[in-house]
Amino acid sequence: MTDKLFNQKDLIAYFIVAAIGASLQIVVSSLLQEWFQVSYENGVLIGYVTSFFIGFFLTKLLAFNAKNSAKTRREMAKFAMVSVISCLITVYGASGLYNLSISQIGSYEFTLPGSVKTVNTNKLFSHTFGMGLSFISNYILHKTFTFRNTGFYEKLKALLNL
């Protein structure tokens, strides 16, 4: 089971897809916080939601060899359920660590060399940590649930048709 769950090809492909999503999350979150005075937690949340749509298609096409499946609607519903869990892990994991870091060690910022842009190290590290936790849970859940026929979608559909 371990060999199939953590095979190198899927893990590398998923890492690349996740890195694209993570980059998008950080850029969107940072811009919203800086330009529009959105709170840290809301910036992380909006960044996550923004990367959701790109993440689904890249994951389907590149990571788990599901590009030729005729089950896109089913996979999207399952992807959304996993993403809600992942979103909670990302947002509250990042927010919790950020608040803990501020209370324990204070705020640290640095200015990018040759620039006037300052980076809040606490926020960057906390956001990256939250995304790392999310990466682990996402990989396992997408590999074992989202892009696999588990019978769950049929049961959910039957339940909703009552």
From TrEMBL:
Note the topology in the membrane: Multi-pass membrane protein
Name the InterPro entries for this protein. Answer: GtrA_CellWall_Glycosyl, GtrA_DPMS_TM
Q: Which chain regions cross the lipid bilayer?
A: 12-32, 44-64, 76-98, 124-141
Keyword Membrane on this protein? yes
**What are the GtrA/DPMS transmembrane domain coordinates in residue numbering?**
14-98
Its main subcellular localisation, reduced to a broad class, is: membrane
Location in or out of the cell: Membrane
Q: Which UniProt keywords apply?
A: Membrane, Transmembrane, Transmembrane helix
Signal peptide (UniProt feature, chain positions): none
Going by the entry's taxonomy, the superkingdom of the source organism is recorded as Bacteria
Q: Does the keyword Transmembrane helix apply?
A: yes
Protein family: Belongs to the GtrA family.
Q: What is this protein called?
A: GtrA family protein
